[in-house]
Amino acid sequence: MQTITIGLLGLGTVGQGVVDLLQKQAAKILRTQDFAFKLKTVAVHNLSRHQNADLPAGTILTDRVMDVVDDPEIQIVIEAMGTIEAARVAICQAILNGKSIISANKDLLATDGDALLTLAKTVGVDFFYEASVAGGIPILRVLSSSLETDEITQVTGIINGTVNHVLTAMDRDGQDYAAALANAQELGYAEADPTNDVQGIDAAYKLIILSRFAFGQSLTMDKVPIQGISAVTPAQLASADRLGLKIKLLAVAKKENQQFYSFVGPAALPATEPLAHVNGVQNAIAVQSKALGETTYTGPGAGAGPTANSIISDLLATGDDIVKGNCGREFNRNRQSLPVRELTSVPQQYLITVAAPVERAVLAAFEWRRELAGPDYWSALTPVLTPAELAARLAALRQDGRRVSCLPVANSWHPAKEKSLRVLI
Amino acid sequence: MQTITIGLLGLGTVGQGVVDLLQKQAAKILRTQDFAFKLKTVAVHNLSRHQNADLPAGTILTDRVMDVVDDPEIQIVIEAMGTIEAARVAICQAILNGKSIISANKDLLATDGDALLTLAKTVGVDFFYEASVAGGIPILRVLSSSLETDEITQVTGIINGTVNHVLTAMDRDGQDYAAALANAQELGYAEADPTNDVQGIDAAYKLIILSRFAFGQSLTMDKVPIQGISAVTPAQLASADRLGLKIKLLAVAKKENQQFYSFVGPAALPATEPLAHVNGVQNAIAVQSKALGETTYTGPGAGAGPTANSIISDLLATGDDIVKGNCGREFNRNRQSLPVRELTSVPQQYLITVAAPVERAVLAAFEWRRELAGPDYWSALTPVLTPAELAARLAALRQDGRRVSCLPVANSWHPAKEKSLRVLI
Using CB atoms, which residue from B293, B298, B306 is nearest to A291? Predict the structure, then answer.
């Protein structure tokens, strides 16, 4: 039985979770694998803060990253530092020293991933990062193995637990955005600085990684139209409910007519869609593909246990490759380069909410679907509209200073109608 | 680039689906893998019925199984015959001839799986069968890779599409069982002889395979308490709806206190559970585990495309093992042997439906939860009851000839309460 030596960078929630799960499952790993793991060294930023850390007997605790990445005995480096800059340098050095890498660092992978992954392939080491998207859902391994031969046409994700917790609370309790966010911060579901979450940036990072696996498509942040949730109101959530819809922050990547479309932002989902029932901090990813139709994967998006489990599943895959001399195979081997478009620019349906009644004369000029009116609101679904058609309607409704809000209806996107609609305008 | 030669047994819906998908995805396989596949020979039962089959140019069509299993050039045999006896003989012979096996034959794998899998391991060939459970959901590969290090405590499946279609139609349209089944047969969602589906036998086969992967537990059919859906009435579905529950045929395997529990049968699921929203022919599997909490996998349970995709994902895994000389690794390496119990024998809650009003005097002797009564029915949830406590209630309600039906409430199972409750009786 071969023993594989591991080094760990970082001992925060994720790092400590990995140490704990590795100890807890040591017997099962011995029973099911052809190898055992030995955690040799853990590098932390601040030694004094971790003097009482719960580590296996004999584990070296250091504040020098090089004690891990330059140690010839260490075969696998688990990066759980969480920063971009320091992690990039450490991973780069570890790869050059011939070590396989496991990381949960979605920011780094989404921004500099291609270069580091190419380096790993060139050197011939493994580089896995299952935990970087939707913590406990094994979506990357599913996309790169079970769905590898299928042709994926759309990936739709609820992949930010903080945002989904806030939207669920607003919908359930009628709270406004600021109150729901403050509450989430108190409960520990939102960070002190929640910018990356509520503005959709975190979801966009994950969508970039998902797009590589699902479509082979490389994507940069500037190519993804990103909207946050700060403008979502209780009135919109209520009008969505009345019309049988749920508002969620969606991350969408779609292939149609050999073009690639993406979008991150709040959208209205018909209650018949499985994702409409994903509440609180849960994550979910729906995959549409030619052979399978729709498959949906639901689970925890974050947390020490789920993230650690994904990291240890990467560890088993790497261990297996080391024992069999198979390192260097890419996690994702799918590559395609399609023209990139924004899903916001294609014909689609919208949920319109006006926080006041609207006179018949204003509405009569347009076609509406499933209109609903009350003493203090008017809301409706539109038919499939081009951006220009939508703009005309919004302008008409906004006359007389009415406050009008508008969200796309998920899965009403019709890139194929674009050409024929353009002719009509 | 290595070419791997394949033989196919059977050219029904699944077999033809494999041939079609293999041709359609040939370019993607070439792009992402280090090998190509060549389908050399297809063996069918009745040659004349397949004279116009759509096969790649040069493929040999034969009615002699030995032309596949004894051909030294063929490295992988895909078994899509569907029968138990003939498939067992063919697979056995192919393994002895050193060929790797891919099968979707759940009946065979659930009944004779252990022997054949041991033979494959001894000879050193691969034997994969992702398509045998929940057609298009990659649940076996997820359990054997991403969840391999986690400790699974419960698996709950809606894994028979025919039955779920019938129950969904009964619930939606108020149809009785016979009418909904006849309708499903007309639509092609139920077979002419639906016995294995509606009696829960098919779901039990799949649960046996799932239990091996999730718990390492070997199980035989006689150890699984199996109930079908023929006794489920529209009145039960209506009373479940009124109490916020949905009735589904569930297949459940559960580990608690180092004992293994199983159950296949109709049960009432709270509408807050993700599985309650799985309708029609969809399948879903919820996995509860220590590190992850709950993850849910939803998708198509059958059909040519989904089944073929699972078979081809097995084909890629086998191809990879052949190229790298790694054949012989078991699909599932989890082994445990816990005492086996029936989940029907542990304390749990029940949904009781009486198709008539019940006098207060009868009800007053017992505690009920969420009681509902109408002019022609009475229904309620019980607290957690032992089988003996349940029997006492049913006997009281059945006095005066009332028709009383009873279903367990999913996830109300309390093996841990068993001991203390026993003391009370």
Answer: B306
